[in-house]
Amino acid sequence: MNSNSNIKPPTKLGVLGSGSGSNMQAIMDAIDSGDLNAEIVLTLSDNPDAYILERATKAGITAQVIDCGGFRTKFPDEKQALVARQLKDAGVELVCLAGFMRLVKQPLLDIFPQKILNIHPSLLPEYPGLMAWKQAVEDGATESGCTVHYVDAGMDTGPIIRQAKVPVILGDTAQTLHTRIQEQEHTLYPNVIKEIIGC
Q1: CATH code for position 180
Q2: What ranges in the chain are assigned the alpha helix state H?
Q3: 0.70 cut: is pTM over it?
Q4: CA pair distance 75, 159, nearest whole angstrom
Q5: What DSSP character marks residue 157?
Q6: Is 126 within the bounds of a domain?
Q7: Residues 6+ apart with CB under 8 A from 15
Q8: By residue range, what is the domain housing residue 166?
Q9: What's the mean pLDDT in 184-199?
Q10: Which residues are catalytic?
């Protein structure tokens, strides 16, 4: 019997992002190191200037812009249906949101039930939405962190999978706290993906 017959093929990932794509880079690094048995097959962004597209292209990953009718506009159902088809056509098995700044609704959720992950820079359910690290500093919080969760139709309301805590220290600014949270994100997200895909 061929000893390779029991080797699981890499799980195909699709990544959606609106910004620099540092979390996608962390996933790519985990794949390249052999720690994560996965392959990013498609990267999509609603922002044509997002660096995440350049990261993908440099790595030989198909990168495309989602036409949402304008940056920071709503993500209409027909556009979400198109994205769902793009992901399915690429063979995507698990969708990873990496700084994607639009709410995901049906039909994406219908096509990928419990197969869409997001990482958020707070200890949900605290500080959902934008600039969570800034909210934490302004609120005088003593602790922050990041959360990986399944995506539902709400704003960062899906079931929590795992969290990493980051203390808010004296003299922290929104930027210094965000930097430390991102360090935890870059470890947490690949580890959770590894746990979910079972390798």
Answers
A1: 3.40.50.170
A2: 22-32, 51-58, 77-89, 108-111, 132-138, 174-197
A3: yes
A4: 22
A5: -
A6: yes
A7: 21, 24, 27, 40, 42, 43, 44, 52, 56, 95, 96, 97, 98
A8: 9-197
A9: 95
A10: 120
